[in-house]
Structure of Hemolysin-III family protein:
Amino acid sequence: MESLSRQRKQPTPVQMEVVPLTSNFESTHPALLSYDEIPEWYQDNDFIRHGYRPESNSVRACFASWLYMHNETVNIHSHFIPGILFLAAEVGIHQYLQTKYPKATIGDRLIFAFFLLTAVTCLGMSAAYHTLMNHSNHVSHLWLRLDFVGIAILTLGDFVSGIYMVFYCEPVLQRIYWIMIITLSFATIFILLNPRFQGRRWRTFRVCTFVGTGLSGLAPLAHGVKIFGFSQMGKQSGMAYYVGEGLLLMLGALFYTVSIEIMCSSPYVNTCCL
């Protein structure tokens, strides 16, 4: 009886399994790859050496990558977040104009709404491209073209609204310059979507179409200065902002065309400085 009582009092050994704290975190996303480990179609900038997502062939997996850090994280969110802000502005612009400028016409409101819509479209397409670029060869190149189409759409919205303000009291000139920018924008979109003009070989040509379309904005600005004078143009059109925008456009095209060498030494910089 005494031996039986002792056996009952002895605790049963508990088996403990030690699990590393990082195991759950690491299992939530696939291992990131280096430049040399990704497929050739995925290799675009050999100065970005680390942080690549593996080819997924899954839209769901691509969007799941929003939840962890990789070398497209900054590109995705730097387009997506402003896109949401512009979308919110699209909702509030009518109320703002009605309160701040009660004499604004329906045309005024539609022009502002159109510009914000083109901005949302551009930023949304860019966020989608940077999200889906590791899906597959076909999907990546399709969304690359759509990314550029989004930029062309934003350029169209920018110019349509600018021409509206410059020639607010000159409807004939408004229509002439609208026809010009619409024609150039659709020509640019055609070149971007045409399979013949894809690949690195045509990169400079594609950029030149962007720059040419962008620089066409100098024509209505110069015409406006001739009609209204430099001082008045600055007041009624915000000309200084358009000139600054044009300079930034050309600077961005220069960076894209010549592929400025970015030597990133640490893995964190390789992840973020794109």
Remarks:
- The radius of gyration is 27 Å.
- The chain has one domain: 35-260.
- Residues 14-27, 260-269 have pLDDT under 50 and may be disordered.
